[in-house]
Specification:
- This protein is α+β, with helices and mostly antiparallel strands and about 500 residues long.
- Helices cover about 30% and strands about 25% of the residues.
- It is built from 12 helices and 27 strands.
- The strands form 6 sheets. Strands 4, 5, 6, 7, 8 and 13 form a 6-stranded antiparallel sheet that branches. Strands 16-17-18-19-21-20 form a 6-stranded mixed sheet, covered by helices on one side. The chain has a 5-stranded mixed sheet with strand order 3-2-1-14-15.
- Helix 3 packs parallel to helix 4 and helix 7 packs parallel to helix 8.
- The longest helix has 24 residues.
- It is globular and about 85 Å long.
């Protein structure tokens, strides 16, 4: 696992397996996530036509709360008993939303999905607070077990251990996959921590005015360590002392024996460049993804749907067309699953595999795809492959895709093309500048960029650039070029005599 925090505006975490980028997580200060946060909000409007209401919870954009995400305890009826974990009341048994909620009513909500485009964040009243091994669900009954724990004997053992914890009657519990092999003492400690956390939230519910932030989800580093880190990760490299301390503090409590796995990367070559991650990231948003055999994948992303086309390209099997199609499709299935994780694509996804006549081949490709997405943390649902080779699937959408977070619509082409934002480009340029300050034979670094990027660098990065100049004894010159787009830049390196040095 590689944790890059050299730029204070952005944190990037890469999971690398056998030298290949498998997962990528990016979070910026300017677009910090609201997912997982708990708020006290006020209902601004109830819409019976869509059986939903809109909630003002203090972020400047109203959230969307559907009747299916309203706890039964909020129903104004005799049948408002607590629901059980994993057994929500069916939609058909719920009263109309106008009978449950009213305009101006205060409500405690949690963000489940970020707002995308013109759509506001998706909310729920089914609160959940995750710990290392357990998930606390206030207002619910029953104990639940992660669906990823499939072994029936293991589920029975885990359930018995949960019962021994004697949790309060007013909360539900779910044991996470990470809690499978944990002792009763470890689970009890995690439960006590979550109960203290919920007590603090409960106090804020009573005292804080509406709207109010009651609980804030951990930052990217802490979430990743909590949700992803396990014994299979052999090493964690950090390029920041602060991040290193944060990771070690977490492991000291959660997994003390693994603290030695955390190492500080203090080499001149930037962390992501050393392990060729920057090259992989540049390819993530490409429309075409080549396959090793010569075939390719083509990604087309719209607001409501993602279409993926599988092409055979130059690959040909001498036996017959059916064998060619089958081999390409089997190669494409795991790469599609990987690309969905890297790009963080969600919603409805349509995959157009190459046509196969043999039913056995179609089922094999479908099975391969299901196995490839089984390790995905986002929930997925895959339908049977059709006779035309079409697979329909859905993937849980938590936040905007990596592409929409990195790029903005070009004002010149009215959104038909994409250009990197000044912030994104500035962060990339700062990484390159930092690397070039390490070069011994360079005295002056001239960077020609667009006016917007130059403005961002000169206003937001001036102090950091000055520090680098002083530390490296090199001159850094930002030159705005009105003819450049945000994606364009040109570096000129000169030695102490003014001669151009190769980059």
């Amino acid at each position: 696992m590689l944790i890059n925090r050299s730029q204070e505006e952005e944190c990037r975490i890469a999971v690398v397996e056998e030298g290949r980028l498998e997962e990528l997580y990016v979070e910026r200060l300017s677009t910090s996530s609201h997912v997982g946060n708990i708020y006290k909000g006020k209902i601004t409007n109830v819409e019976p036509s869509i059986q939903a209401c809109f909630v003002d919870f203090g972020i400047g954009q109203n959230g969307f709360l559907h009747i299916s995400d309203v706890q039964s305890t909020l129903f104004h009826s005799k049948d408002n008993q607590k629901e059980s974990v994993g057994r929500k009341r069916p939609r058909r048994d719920r009263p109309p939303i106008q009978e449950c909620l009213r305009r101006g009513q205060e409500v405690i909500v949690q963000v489940t999905k970020e707002g995308i485009g013109t759509k506001g964040p998706t909310l729920t009243t089914y609160l959940s607070i995750p710990g290392r091994f357990l998930v606390l669900m206030p207002g619910m009954n029953r104990l639940g077990i992660s669906r990823k724990i499939e072994d029936s004997e293991a589920r029975t053992q885990v359930r018995d251990m949960l019962n021994q914890l004697n949790p309060p009657k007013d909360v539900g519990l779910i044991i996470r996959t990470a809690g499978m092999d944990r002792s009763k003492k470890e689970l009890q400690q995690d439960l006590n921590f979550l109960l203290r956390l919920w007590k603090t939230v409960s106090q804020k519910i009573k005292s804080d005015p509406t709207p109010a932030l009651l609980y804030q989800e951990s930052d990217l580093v802490q979430r990743t360590m909590r949700d992803i880190f396990n014994s299979n990760i052999s090493r964690i490299l950090c390029d920041s002392d602060i991040t290193l301390k944060k990771v070690r503090d977490f492991l000291r409590i959660a997994m003390p024996r693994t603290r030695s796995h955390v190492v500080l990367h203090d080499e001149p070559v930037p962390l992501f460049e050393k392990y060729h991650i920057e090259e992989e990231i540049e390819k993530i948003n490409a429309r075409y993804v080549p396959l090793p055999s010569g075939g390719s994948l083509v990604f087309d992303q719209a607001e409501a749907i993602v279409a993926i086309d599988v092409n055979s390209g130059k690959f040909r099997d001498h036996k017959d067309a059916e064998t060619t199609s089958f081999k390409i499709n089997m190669e494409a299935a795991p790469e599609i699953a990987r690309q969905l994780r890297l790009r963080d694509l969600g919603g409805v996804i349509i995959i157009d595999f190459i046509d196969m006549v043999n039913e056995k081949h179609r089922r094999a490709v479908e099975k391969c795809l299901r196995e490839a997405v089984s390790t995905d943390r986002a929930r997925t649902k895959i339908l049977r492959i059709s006779q035309f080779g079409i697979v329909e699937m859905t993937r849980q959408r938590m936040r905007p895709s990596l592409k929409s977070s990195t790029y903005m619509h070009c004002p010149h082409c009215k959104g038909s093309g994409l250009v990197k934002s000044p912030e994104s480009m500035s962060i990339e340029i700062m990484r390159r500048i930092q690397a070039m300050t390490k070069k011994v034979n360079v005295a002056v670094i001239d960077i020609a960029v667009s006016a917007d990027v130059a403005s961002f660098l000169q206003n937001q990065k001036r102090s950091l650039l000055a520090q680098w100049e002083q530390a490296s004894q090199k001159s850094i010159v930002i030159v705005p070029n009105p003819a450049f787009s945000n994606d364009e830049n040109h570096f000129t390196l000169r030695d102490i005599r003014g001669s151009v040095v190769p980059a």
